[in-house]
Amino acid sequence: MADERIIFKGNPSTVSILGSLLVCVILFLAGSIGLILYWNKLSPGPLRQVVFWLPLIPLLFLIGKWTALKFLSYEITSERIKITKGLLSKRTDELELYRAKDTSLVEPFLYRMFSVGNIVIITGDASTPTVELRAINHAKEIREQLRVSIEECRGRKRTGIVELE
Fold first, then answer.
1. Is residue 90 within 8 Å of residue 74, measured between CB atoms?
2. What is the DSSP letter of 119?
3. Which is nearest to 34 in space by CA: 52, 46, 50?
4. Predicted local distance difference test score (pLDDT) of residue 146
5. Alpha-carbon distances of 5 from 2, 75, 79, 98, 160, rounded to whole Å
6. Cα distance between residue 47 and residue 90, in whole Å
7. pLDDT digits (tens, 9 = 90+) for 17-33
8. pTM metric for this prediction
9. Could you give the 3-state DSSP secondary structure of residue 141?
10. Among residues 11, 6, 55, which one has the least CA distance to residue 34?
11. pLDDT less than 50: residues of the chain
């Protein structure tokens, strides 16, 4: 639509991989220290070469996690939510806002320290009953804007939710 405005556009926060970062750094440091201490005790040969490259495995894992995080993007507009993921092959999923039934804000302790949160959207869509936008900066404000946009979108489309007991 012509009057569609962007509420939020971005990637999940790096805070979401903070635990992996910490574990990978510890493993890298432990492997490097072990390599320095025991390098002369290893006999020359293929095993020595394997042990030399071993501390880099946690760093490669961390680079993979970070790359996956940076190639996941969210775009919330006044009409829909778009989730795009992928590095070489991309996939974009869209959810029309009038299909949203309810929103929740989940703020784990570590996320709250950095003003980050997860926005969970319960939908009436059969293919995606739940959409989770993970590690969104300033999630509380964005969720509130999203809630207002959902109500406006329902009003424009003249749709509503019927709850049966």
1. no
2. E
3. 52
4. 94
5. 9, 10, 8, 15, 22
6. 39
7. 999 999 999 999 998 89
8. 0.82
9. helix
10. 55
11. none
